[in-house]
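Exercise 4. Each item below gives a protein and its sequence. For each, produce the structure-token representation.

Item: Glycosyltransferase (Phocaeicola dorei).
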Amino acid sequence: MKNQSSHQNRQPIKHGTTPPRIFIAIQYLEIGGAERSLIGLLNALDYSRCQVDLFVYRHSGEFMNLIPKEVNLLPEVKKYTTLTRPIRKIIREGYWDIAAGRIAAHLLDWCYRKRRKAKESQAIFQYVADCTTPFLPSINEGRTYDLAISFLTPHNIVRDKVKAQQKWAWIHTDYSFIDINTRRELPVWGAFGRIISISESVSKGFLSKFPSLECKLILMENILSETFIREQAELPFDTSFLQAFEGREGQTKHPVLLCTVGRFSYPKAIDRAVYICRQLVQQGIDVCWYVVGYGGDKPLIRKAIAETGMEKHFVLAGKQMNPYPYIKACDIYVQPSRYEGKAVTVREAQILGKPVVITRFPTSSSQLEEGVDGIIIPNNVKGAAEGLAQFIADKRQQEAIKAQLRIRHYGNEKEVGKIYSAIEG
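Answer:
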């Protein structure tokens, strides 16, 4: 199928009384960093200056209720929901073409990983997009948008199924840490007029894979509203998870409350955090570490908790639509990731005045100013435990960081000006 993008390098045009129209696409609105970032963007837009059509492939997820009323949520198209639903189900519903495409994609990915001898790879997502997008219907075929935004990879659908004068694609991942099929992805990224990176470090990682696309990159950080986050942090929340800490070994009146928010996945390294927690406890530190989130690694994390005997020190607080009261309740916010693009939760914790500890990964320097508004610890169990233990003991440094957080501003709603510049001329 021919690419429906047109005039990718066309200059912004001026409009009369009708505001420019923006199209935004995302797979679903489950609880996650990219999804939360999109909600931040939608809340920051001035709807007297633009109209927004939001296309969510599958109308699922807690954040569906957070879509601003000014946004025009396009109807769900059933064939788009087949991209993520079980293959057996979509075969029973008659979507043989999508099912065959997804099966073919898995075979291609298996061959790719075998050839590369790669245990961990994200090439599958691009294979699925390449093998299924030709069978999907166009979106709002009779309309040409001023700007179309593909908010999450893979970007084939906005490239091929939407008409727009300009098209932008977002990067949320540190590409220096993941294995992808660059030959497959390059023509997709290259079809977009602008590629939006959420940090300088993310840009660097992306260019390590796609150096020819440097001229298309624009930096636009995840949009956060300090007022919204602080208001949400004051709302009531379920504290029943704290009961799980009762009766722990070495229990004191004032335990150290550590909090982590994130999807239970390999990059977030929640499984590894359990072993860091054990080393802290072995050093005699009364730690209560709770994690807000969900995901496929939950059995792995549960197994690690059982193997280490950390049931009374490391607790999974579950999937929460509003994580801010949980962050507000902790003493120290910890991001133990193996790698990140740019963790929204780190900024959110800083907005709430919490000392932040993150592991050292390629983009960590873009997350905080080391030793000033947070600290960076080694990216391994032993080093992370030592660094975290030192920080827990150093009350003076904690207070100095809190003082910095009180005078700094992390809200960045003005980032949306880059969108206005593109569509208003």
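Check: The mean pLDDT is 90.
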